[in-house]
Amino acid sequence: MDTDALTPGLLQDLRRDRPYPALSLTMPTHRKAPDNAQDAVRLRNLVAEAGNRLESDPRVTREARAAVKAQLDRAVEEVDQRRALDSLVILADADEYQIWQLPRTAPERVVLSDSYLTRNLVAAKAGARLFWVLSFSAEHATLFSGTNDGLRAEKRGAFPLSAPHEEPNPQREERIGDTPSTYSSEDARNFLRTVDEGLRGVMAADPRPLFLVGLAPALSLLDEVGESAKPAVGRVAKGTTAETTAPELLKELSPALEDWRGQAAAEIRSRFDNARSSRSFAGGLDEVWLAVREGRAGLVAVEEHFATTVRVTDGHLEPVGADVTPATDEQVREDIVDELVEAALDNGCEVSFVADDSLAGHGRIAAVLRF
User: What distance in Å separates the CA atoms of residue 111 and residue 101, rounded to the nearest whole number?
Assistant: First the structure.
């Protein structure tokens, strides 16, 4: 699965307590040759490590060990190296397995616990800047899921939708004096009411910024018959069909996306300027980590590719060299940034990923404090 499949409901399920052991396996992967040649070998080594951990753990019964190994083996067989992004996460217990391909790197790790490790999934979703695109007319409505990597048509809720087709009725046209225009007909209004209902369900289950693409009369009528499209962050007055492809739609949408991203970056800069003036600003990993743990952070901004390894000592973070790993020191965290992002979101903090080097003067990560 990809990060856009991580709905709040699914995340809640992944975090629930499970019979021990729930196995989480994470590793970095490569999108292109020749670097991706090493991924299969690395995965085999991690699977072997997972098997050794299961064998040596006295808390794991023989039945549980066999069941988890079987689920892990099924997952490995299903991994599609051709779809590799920047990391792979496999979650497995005695009853199921899940495979996640993430557009954000994760360290090599095998974890046995009573719940799945979700920090890398959460951080990858936050960094992907997910959004919805609704492409529609009086005849069709198609939902697309958007990420930094592009668009993908989505079967979610009632979507995709097609208007019911009725045979022309000359007697009706004579009674009303003329054939009604497409967007003044009751059929169009009823169809867009259905679109509005479907969109409301999608936004309630998985809230994201929304972009609308359709002819101007369609955009206007959707606002008139419902409420769910009104908060859209971008509108493109361009006709589409049910056959419009994701690349074609992305081309039309690109200016609106760039504008949205530019506005978001400008807003963050403004909030940080105000925070520095009011002394409610924290910069650097250790300061932001403390603020998040204490619930004082209202906004955390992280450079997109910032990653570092630290040792947690007396509640503070100390950078360590690349030769130090959790295998040699249990206080070491290789994915501390992902851990911080997950903790911040759990505390109701807003998290934004920003361009590399934009926070170079503040240790690659900064926060606006609530108090």
Answer: 18
Residues written for the chain? 371
**Residue 29 and residue 36 in contact, taking contact as beta carbons nearer than 8 Å:** yes
In the chain the first and final C-alpha atoms are separated, in Å, by 39
Q: List % helix, strand, coil for the chain (3-state, nearest 5).
A: 40, 25, 35
Least Cα distance to 124 among 291, 6, 250, 300 occurs for 6
Whole-model pTM: value is 0.85
Pick from 97, 52, 95, 57: nearest CA to 73: 97
How buried is residue 186: exposed, middle or buried, by Cβ count under 10 Å (0-12/13-18/19+)?
exposed
Residue 300 pairs in a beta bridge with: 351, 367
* DSSP characters over 261-316: HHHHHHHHHHHHHHHHHTT-EEESHHHHHHHHHTT-EEEEEEETT----EEEETTE
Which residue, 148, 47, 50, is CA-closest to 104? 148
Cα 215 to Cα 208: distance, rounded to the nearest angstrom: 22
Q: How many CB atoms are closer than 10 A to CB 278?
A: 10
Greatest C-alpha distance within the chain:
85
- Two tokens at 361? 């003067």
pLDDT at 166: 59
**pLDDT tens, 154-188?**
999 999 999 987 555 555 444 333 344 688 899 99
